[in-house]
TrEMBL record:
GO cellular component, one term: membrane
Location in or out of the cell: Membrane
Keywords on record: Membrane, Transmembrane, Transmembrane helix, Transport
Protein name: Uncharacterized protein
Summary of the function given for this chain in its UniProt record: Putative solute transporter.
Keyword Transmembrane: yes
Length: 73
């Protein structure tokens, strides 16, 4: 869980309606689904690395870095 600013735990979220713990207790299942989707996506990416070569991974990665640096100038 991300660290919330200290005032959020005492005063509630910026809208001020209820505190963060109440929101998490009510919506925990949504965060669980998002966590499982993220876990599955990370697993599939790592599994895909087994079927490719290091060159095919590095070329798009390095070319995207080069394009990023060009557009920063």
């Amino acid at each position: 869980m991300c660290q919330a600013p200290p005032g959020v735990w005492q005063r509630g979220h910026p809208a001020g309606e209820e505190n963060l713990l109440a929101i998490l207790r009510r919506r925990w299942w949504k965060y669980m689904i998002l966590g499982l989707i993220d876990l599955e996506a990370n697993y599939l990416v790592v599994k895909a690395y087994q079927y490719t070569t290091l060159t095919s991974i590095q070329v798009p990665r390095l070319s995207s870095l080069l394009i990023f640096l060009i557009f920063q100038m």
